Amino acid sequence: MTKSKFQAILFDLDGTLVDSSRDITTSINLTLKHLGYDPITLKQSNSFVGDGIRMLVKRALGKSIYNDERHIIEHDLLSEADKIYRKYYAQHVLDTTLPYPGVVDTLSRIAGLQLAVISNKALVYVNEIIIHFQLDKYFRLILGGDSLELKKPDPYPLLYVAQQFNIDPQQCLMVGDSEKDIIAGKAAGMNTCAVTYGMRTEKSLKEQQPDYILSDFQSINSIIR
Length: 225
Description:
The protein has ten helices and eight strands. The protein has 225 residues and is α/β, with parallel strands linked by helices. The chain folds into two domains: 8-19 and 99-224, 3-Layer(aba) Sandwich (Rossmann fold); 21-92, DNA polymerase, domain 1. The strands form two sheets. A six-stranded parallel β-sheet has the order 5-4-1-6-7-8, with helices on both faces. α9 links the parallel β7 and β8.
């Protein structure tokens, strides 16, 4: 590939590399049904994704039971729902999930760079998705939300990757579809790129003032040259 302005590119997974929204929504609604509660919408589910499984489940329970995703959920119920969700998601993780258009081709084009995945999803599911679609060959490092002590929006996972790659954070680009990705990238001193085709609105992403905003994955080629 042509010379890049970055030495490493760090990617979020859900809403960035793969469209997993329907399988996540299916699994959370099966969890709610199992517990006797009403389902939530795809749009609501998407807005609850990004802080790991427990927060997804907490927000879904709050919305379904109290019509308030911020409502405090009793510990035992939350723990039970967390376990139930993991069971259902393990069964449905690959029902409809697919890489976004252009992901495989673009990753093959930029494979000469140091590439990593930093997701807040549990690593077991991150690996299952990435390996299933044979994307693992492109990434030197893959982190889930339970890989380290802290997860996005804390910059620690991003700085950890830069350290493992022995690269200055300023030479890295963080690419993601959520506010958490941009906040973490900025806090780590990295360049940031928001993609608008994922689970967040373009408006909410622009509020975080990323260095780049893209509407399709292939356009990464144009900003790294």
